[in-house]
Amino acid sequence: MGDFFKSRLFFVSLAVVIIASTLPLYVSGYVLGLLTVAYYFGVFAMSWDLLFGFAGEVNFGPTFLIGVGAYTAGILNNQYGWSVYLCIVLGALAAVVAGFVLALPALRVRGPYFGLTTLVAVLMLQNFIVVFADLTGGEIGLTIPDVISIDAGVNYWIALGFMTISAIILYGLSQSPIGLVLQASGQDPIQAGALGFNIVKHKLAAFVVSAFFSGLSGALLVFYFGTASVGTVVDIAVGVQVIVAAVLGGRRTVLGAALGAIFLIVAGEFLRPTGELATFIVSTVALLVILFFPNGFLGAALSHGARS
Amino acid sequence: MDATSNNPPVLEVRGLTKRFGGLTAVKQLSFDLRAGEIFGLIGPNGSGKSTAMKAIMGIERPSAGEVIFQGENVAGLPAHKIARKGFGMVFQHSRPLNRQTVLENIMVALLPDSLFMLFADKALTERAKWIANRVGLGAVMDRRPPTLPFADLRRLELAKAIARDPKVVLVDEPFAGLTLGEVGTFSELIRSFRDEGRAVLLVDHNVKSVAALVDRVLAMYLGEEIVTGRADEVMRNETVRRVYLGGAIETSARPETSFKDKVPLLQVENVSVFYGKAQALENVSIHVHQGEFVSVVGLNGAGKTTLFNTISGFLPYTGDIIRDGEKLRNVSPARIARSGIVQCPESRELFGEMSVRENLDLGGQHLTDEARDKQLAWLFELFPILKDRQGQMAQTLSGGEQQMLAIGRALMMQPKILILDEPTLGLAPVILEQLSKALERLRQTTPITVLLGEQNVTFALPHADRVYVLEHARIVWEGDPGRFAAEAGEGYL
After folding, report:
1. What pLDDT shows up at residue A277?
2. Closest Cα of chain A to B94: distance in Å?
3. Residue B287: phi, psi to the nearest 5?
4. Is A304 exposed, middle or buried (0-12, 13-18, 19+ CB in 10 A)?
């Protein structure tokens, strides 16, 4: 861990964050808005990588955690008019509780069944939102009276700050002894058990941490948008985008996941003039990277650096 | 040894039993393990020794029986709790963390089972370094596992197992994949564990390989204890000899000159295969004539399955595999099978949720309806039991019936060369007799060529025209089955 502060990765990350924080001084509100969303997605992807890259569990339903956080925060604000910050905190806690309730039984099943359970959870949440439209706004979406700020620069700084802090915590966790035990449990659960580690406990903890950051980020995102809708925070397609971002950026790197998310969102926007083709082009690039650089952007860069 | 036998045992295993569905893998196993003792659990492949070890460690939950550690019954606890009580296990297959250094890998084993350990202690690093030096990894502790030779990866497994100073060390096949020189070094290491007062439990296939190391041995067969005692006593035991070598073996080999083909039907020439860094086959050459029954005998881990999988096209290799004068390189496994080299794998690979008949029909899928019916009628004559079981799901068959079905499915493909990998694995003697008769019939009444891999010499020799002995990835003996006992049998106990 101490070595990290001397590593190239640290200085590069520091430089990137400093440069990013100066952007509101000279780029348009449109670009800032785009990056704000991208940064929240970056946190989604990093939280997901903690589960997949370290605990070895494929969570096909990142949007279950994101959606619970986002909608809890949104509904509380909409129904009771509680303060934005209280709603955000409660949203994150709701995601943690939901994640815990989902993971506790799901982690007892082996292999692909864990992934399937998480997938079903998303469908159930989606269904719930559509059925209880009075409360949730249903398919039209939920209007949220309050926003954090209307200033694009402030929103951008909040998102950047949030992503940076999340990155520090998630990366630190991944490099800590807990991260090592998680990796060992993901790679060889039998041996990790024989070394005296309670695998279910560790994986559950990883799931809870992942849920906390996903839910928090989801809640922040709806107070940025001013609305919550299935299409933006719950739909399976959003979950797939989170997963692709994390794999694209580099499994087991945490930080790479944020890069992948920013790439996906920004590239999708830049290609918007191509109309329907945009999604196709971004997906093709993602597919090529996954096929030819399975370690992702950061994985490839790091292993190259290690060799030279 | 005499000094230690007065101490109360560290570990008492009482009536340990493990059932998987209808199969009893370990039956009423009992033994004691004392501090400063190396105890060997020995048995042929499928005898239940590894399952017994896993049940002690808590990786498999025992169906019945007690595992008493320092007076406390730990049977039924999960592995991580048993480990924390003072057990360490050395796994045969290692999957280290490849992005971490050797030292960090050892440190993982030292960490507490806590969610609040965010920073590793300095003392942990020191302890990890000490352990690395202790097992001979001192020079490579800052390297990453993928860059290490095989023996060092095995040392890393030893290091992890002894990291938290366990009272009981379980070792699964200590010498698998090691060279002779390395076997010596590892024996020394394991002896030093004993000298530190640990109780060591080894699992291996044969007495000979661990005879110099162990204080006492328990020989198992089909899940049950045969005999316990000093290695030399166990090696002299009649039942043990019969399990490994069989009684008087009658052979009925046809001389090699009686086969008419000038160039053998199948030639394997100087084939070498690696799994990562471990060499699984080293310059292996064998040949099989048209109509010949050839047995490849060797202990578990010698390389038999690797050899067969290489012939079947599943593994990359150097050297040549030639059938009817044509090299098989770059031919897909599916085409090799279709062209008549059919393997009946050790693991049987039946379609468990399909019926017996469906399994057989899949084997004969490429035949015309008429030819398939004819083949099926012939097969039911060979294995009448399959006829009665046609509608039953394959996974509900007994072990022996499953083996017959696996062979039957292979025969439905009308093989020219049938490869049988360990057909007797875990089967009761009465089933062996039935398989034996079926093989004899194939030999007498069909032109089929058979390549049989076995560690059960009693089963392999009577059917063989010629025998190869595979040991540590190499062919060490070739000859007539009648000469086997005299020339190669000794190395086999």
Report:
1. 82
2. 9
3. -140, 155
4. exposed
Does the beta-carbon distance from A177 to B100 stay under 8 Å? Answer: no
Q: Which of A50, A174, A195 would best serve as a mutation to test chain B binding (most B beta carbons within 10 A)?
A: A195
Q: How many domains does chain A have?
A: 1
- Name the nearest CA neighbour of B96 among B87, B88, B105: B105
The span from the CA of B448 to the CA of B440, in Å, is: 11
d(CA B44, CA B26): 13
Place of tokens 């945490």: A254
The tokens of B92 are what?
Answer: 């045969």
Smallest CA–CA distance, residue B196 to chain A, in Å, is 20
Domain membership of residue A47 (yes or no) is yes
Residue A1 has pLDDT above 50, yes or no: no
Q: Give the range of the structural domain holding residue A222, as residue numbers without chain letter.
A: 28-236
Nearest CB among B78, B99, B160 relative to A195 is that of B160
What is chain B's mean pLDDT, rounded?
87
Yes or no, beta carbons of B97 and A180 under 8 Å apart: yes
Q: Is residue A64 part of a domain?
A: yes
Q: Which residues of B are less than 8 Å from A178 in CB distance?
A: 115, 117-118
Burial class (CB in 10 A: 0-12, 13-18, 19+), A283: middle
Q: Is A291 exposed, middle or buried (0-12, 13-18, 19+ CB in 10 A)?
A: exposed
Contact yes or no for B80 and A193 at CB 8 A: yes
**A303 part of contact set with chain B, CB < 8 Å:** no
> A6 in a domain, yes or no?
no
Tallying the residues shown for chain B, one arrives at 493
Q: Which residue from B444, B392, B416 is spatially nearest to B405, judged by alpha carbons?
A: B392
* Residue A202 sits at the chain B interface (C-beta within 8 Å): yes
B123-150 pLDDT, tens digit per residue, is 889 999 999 999 999 999 999 998 888 8
Q: Which residues of B touch A190 (CB under 8 A)?
A: 59, 79, 91
Higher per-residue confidence, B198 vs B484: B198
- Residue B33, phi then psi, degrees to nearest 5: -130, 125
Q: What is the dihedral of CA B328, B331, B336, B339, to 10 degrees?
A: -90
What class, spelled out in words, does domain B256-492 have in CATH?
alpha beta
Q: Out of 3.40.50.300, 3.20.20.240, 3.30.1330.60, 3.40.50.2300, select the CATH number for domain B4-245.
A: 3.40.50.300
The pair of three-digit structure tokens given for residue A139, joined into one six-digit string: 């398919």
Tokens of A57: 């569990």
Pair of tokens at residue B233: 């006593």
Q: Please, what is the end-to-end C-alpha distance for chain A in angstroms?
A: 22
DSSP string, B9-73: PSEEEEEEEEEETTEEEEEEEEEEE-TTEEEEEE--TTSSHHHHHHHHHTSS--SEEEEEETTEE
A196: left (phi over 0), alpha (psi -120 to 50) or beta: left
- Domain boundaries along the sequence of chain B: 4-245, 256-492
Distance separating alpha carbons of residues B478 and B467, to the nearest angstrom: 6
Using CB atoms and an 8 Å cut-off, which of residues 250-289 of chain A contact chain B?
252
Task: Read off the pLDDT of residues A17-58 as tens digits, 9 standing for 90 and up.
Answer: 999 999 999 899 999 999 999 999 999 999 999 998 888 888
**B347 DSSP assignment:** T
Residue B2 confidence (pLDDT) above 70:
no
Distances (CA, A) of A132 to A95, A127, A138, A146: 19, 9, 7, 22
Nearest to A194 among B57, B118, B119 (CB): B57
